[in-house]
Every structure is written in C-alpha cells, then in structure tokens.
Design a protein that fits this description.
The chain has 407 residues and is α/β, with parallel strands linked by helices. 28% of the residues lie in helices and 21% in strands. Strand 8 and strand 9 form a beta hairpin. The mean pLDDT is 95. It binds iron/sulfur cluster. Iron/sulfur cluster (SF4) binds next to loops.
Amino acid sequence: MIKLNHLDYYRLPWNLTDNSISWLEPTAKCNLSCDGCYRKNELNSHKSLEIIREELDTFNKFRKCDGVSIAGGDPLLHPNIVEIVKMVKEYGCKPIINTNGLALTKDLLKELKQAGVYGFTFHIDSKQNRPGWKDKNETELNELRYQYAVMLKEAGNISCSFNSTVYEDTLQYVPEMVKWAEKNIEIVQVMVFIIYRAVNTTEAEYYLGPLKIDMNKLVYNEDYKARVDIKAEEVVQEIRTIYSDFDPCAYLNGSEQPDSFKWLLTGRLGTKKKIFGYMGAKSMEVVQSFHHMFNGRYLAYSSPKMTRKGKSLLTLSLFDKKLRKAFWKFYKNPLNIFKRLHYQSVMIIQPIDVLDDGRQNMCDGCPDITVWNGKLVWSCRMEEQLNFGYNLRTYPKDFLKDKKAEI
Ligand code: SF4
C-alpha cells in the first residue's frame, strides 16, 4: 500500500462546534436494503416537524455548519421533506439531500428547488439490490448516475454529488468511476467513496460496561466475509492506476491514530476532456479560511455556478506549488483562456477502525454528527445509541477473559 504523509496535506479545521456539515435524520425508513448500511430500516420512523426543529435547534446551539445533510433511511420518503428543506434553509444552512434517488421525480425536484435545496448526494452502488439494476457493476451504474446528474442540471444550479460504498470486490471499479466523473465534470461536483465497515467479532468483542454484547442484534453485523479494514490510501493507490498524479490536498485524521486518513479530500481542475491538475494544501487552506472569515462557517458544498469558476481558483497558484503546475498546464495553450475550467472534489471516507488494542479510531472532527436525545452523536453509531443509550466499547478478543484470569 502506498504511504501518504498526512503532514504534507492541510488538516481540515472542522471540529465538533465549528464544522462544515451536520447530519439530520428525519426518518429511518428506506426503500432499498444496501449491504453496507449501518442503519436499521424502520418503517414507522418519520419524525415530526417539531422534533426535527428541536434537532436543528440543538445543532444551532452547539455547532456551526455550512451544510446540513438530510439523510435517513431515505429522506425523500418523509411526507414533509419539502418543509424540512425550508426549515434547514431558515437556519442559514445549505440543505443537502442524501438519497438513493428512487423516489425523486421531476415534480418533487421542482418543489424542492423552490424550497431552497442546495444539493443532492445520490447513494448509488452495486450492493443495493436496486430494482432494474441488480446485476450491474459499478461501471455499468454510471448510466444511472448520469440520469440523476442530468436531472439536476435541467433543474439548474443544484450541486450534484454521488457516494458509493467501496467493498473489497468493488475497489477495482473506483478508477473508472473517477474517470466517468471527469467526463461529466460540468454536471458532477463531488464523488464520495465510503469504505465499507462492519462489525468483526473474530478480532474484537463489544461491551456495554461489564456486559458483553451479542452484536448480531445490530444491523452492521454482516454475515458475509469481506475485508472491513480497507484504508483510504488503498483507494488513492487504485485511482493512481488511471491518474498517476492524483494527489489529495486535505484530510481529517483519526481520533486515535493521528496519521490515519478518515476524510481524505482531493480537489481537481479540468474539463470533460482533461484534468489539468490538483489543489494543494495551501489553496484549500485559503478557500476554507476565507469562506469562514466571510461567512462564519467552513465550506462544505459549492454550487455549479461556483465550481465552473476553476480559472479564478488558479489565481491561488501564487501560494500553491501544486496548483501552479495546473496553471501552466492549462495555459500552455493560450486559447484555453476562452475555455471554462471546472473544479471537482473527490472525497474518500474511512469510517471506524477498531485497532488491535481495542481502541476505536473515529473521524476526528466528524462532519456527520447528528442529534440524539439532545446530544451530538456519531451518526454511524446511532444503532448503539438507540439500542443501548451509549457507544459500545471494544476489546481485543478474549482480552477481558485473560485479564479476569490474571486478576
Ligand atoms: S465518525 Fe462516523 S459518522 Fe462521523 S464522519 Fe466518521 S464515519 Fe461518518
């Protein structure tokens, strides 16, 4: 596996109280059953608008953010999704809908646009048992991704992102998906790759205080055997099989392992025919700091109107060596001055790692924080909150048995 040095990149300033995103779950009901899902599909789980407002109040009381990811389950199944978007906008945040897209119609999209939706993150991958697309691999699913991207383009100025869970057997398709995103850089602003995680009881045991927990109770205890320890660097390595100069610019480290990449951000500049280069640590620092200085929040999502201004980003090459390479590559042909240059993000997310000694390496500065019982909690561990009221502790297998024997 390639080794990236985290000190070469910009540590994103996102933290518990001052972040770029927050995660709102108006429902746990879903119309798909993805293999890697970490939320139980609850049919009667739509929250009332009162409760959703309380949760937004809790975010507002404890945390600043640029965007609110409206997730679930699938939020489009909530009967008041249009009102929820209006509500999020009222709090001065960008409403971003995280959906598998199945329930999205042109009419609903029109209503959501009028309500102020800022963007969509479509969760599309080959392990969703999606009707009509069941046996399609990730590359074949680009056809479906394209349909949603065109739908948003026609609606106008709505940020378009795709997220896919990366499994051991789908890692090979990531480069082709990044290539597809290049060809559609004018209508796709973000590609997110979330590395698959599930409970691994062969190496760790889960405890609530002194009580050992049977993890079969929880949805993220998977039956089939697949790697649950793929690292962000492995995804970069795979992408480099097509883009040898692919290079991130910023990251969030692990809460236990400082040199682990939990969120790894790459910013690239290109046209649908060519990628001219990458943002460096300095230019991403300028973008985040300026956005915070002028808007009081760190930047999460940019609209298509913003991302097609790649040439203005090139001015930051004054401070940024990596971006300077892109500058010279782009203007090597002076006629490019008449061309549009687009910015596109590629984000790799590496959820929880249970380390050999049982420590849990979470994302330090978790952007997907949600609300439960008036508290801010990790949305990826919500099942533990719902079942036990706490996040479970982990110990290496038989660790406590051996300890008890010693004591
Ligand atoms: S800690 Fe969990 S919820 Fe937060 S960003 Fe990481 S994977 Fe997502």
